[in-house]
Amino acid sequence: xxxxxxxxxxxxxxxxxxxxxxxxxxxxxxxxxxxxxxxxxxxxxxxxxxxxxxxxxxxxxxxxxxxxxxxxxxxxxxxxxxxxxxxxxxxxxxxxxxxxxxxxxxxxxxxxxxxxxxxxxxxxxxxxxxxxxxxxxxxxxxxxxxxxxxxxxxxxxxxxxxxxxxxxxxxxxxxxxxxxxxxxxxxxxxxxxxxxxxxxxxxxxxxxxxxxxxxxxxxxxxxxxxxxxxxxxxxxxxxxxxxxxxxxxxxxxxxxxxxxxxxxxxxxxxxxxxxxxxxxxxxxxxxxxxxxxxxxxxxxxxxxxxxxxxxxxxxxxxxxxxxxxxxxxxxxxxxxxxxxxxxxxxxxxxxxxxxxxxxxxxxxxxxxxxxxxxxxxxxxxxxxxxxxxxxxxxxxxxxxxxxxxxxxxxxxxxxxxxxxxxxxxxxxxxxxxxxxxxxxxxxxxxxxxxxxxxxxxxxxxxxxxxxxxxxxxxx
Length: 475
Ligand code: BGP
Known about the structure:
14 strands; alpha/beta; about 15% strand; globular
């Protein structure tokens, strides 16, 4: 058998991209709510255009998203029908602590997720919970400056203590921060950072990263203390950087880019700052405010498993190298001439998936959990209502086959695989609905029009069969 017994097949979503109900159930406002659809989204996400409230003339897709806040039972039932073993979802921090710094949590928010987890178990689905998926109370940004402020470690500790206590027995798999390395690419989205004129951006990003890393280690400690059954993982936006050529300068450029990403997991998995990161901080004169307690907490509370998203590999070239550069997603780089790209310019590289799996397994020797993978594409609804998304099936088939090879041929140890957006949802990068990943179609467009009705695409039955055969039948 290729995939191990009990392999956790499923799908992944994030609260702000599917829930909606932004002002219901006592929920407070979060950074992700005020990221508009349209050309300014990227600058807002990067912390370069300050937008801390809703402004006139913009459309904010997270306000209602796909209305899962009201439809989760119906949606989870469809996941159950596909045979999901796990469903990865995230907690909206502001449902639990509307401002982030209250003493008492909001019971309505806690009850909402409790019922959602029960709905999962009724379908035989194990929840996999991301504690924060690009999600931070606006109040913590306005009052404290987001994750640049160490006080957020305490707010986070309070949040996780409430979650681990309340959901003991209902949730066993946890991720501390979604794509923690996104701080370096979209720092407002990743850490609630907004930069003022003249600030040292890099210094603030690494300071915020340190605070998140320490908070993540505390969460691991608290989670294990509350329930030793808890399995707590880190989460990386992965995708190995290839050198553009075998020119040593290109190879070095790729090595440096890879280290920038590995840095986070090196700390979370090994428990200390790697030498190359310490040297870089020293060289650039960056003080992250490391305390002895931080060092101890990091060392004693490493993660149980490594989770990551994989959409594509990336390519690095030295500045002197002549090549086409791309800004396909949040990660800029050289354009790989050997690969085709998606409609949104993301390189498609199934073999790169196997390479990335090997790189991470070799480096950490801890079980891997792929918690995002998929193809964002435009779908066409036929006259009869059917949606023939063969391109999506092809993408997933090739990636699952590459993952199978990594397990059977290379000996990579894995816990599971969740595709991104099993139901169409709002794109994190662009705010669009038309960038669809789902097996389940949602009738909603980029401007927020549509009935929100759900319907099955061709890929729905295909994925159902993949799960039913534990990955044996990919046809
Ligand atoms: C990851 C995020 C997700 C998700 C995905 C796809 O970076 O963790 O939240 O959205 O990418 O990206 P996009 O939505 O921009 O297509």
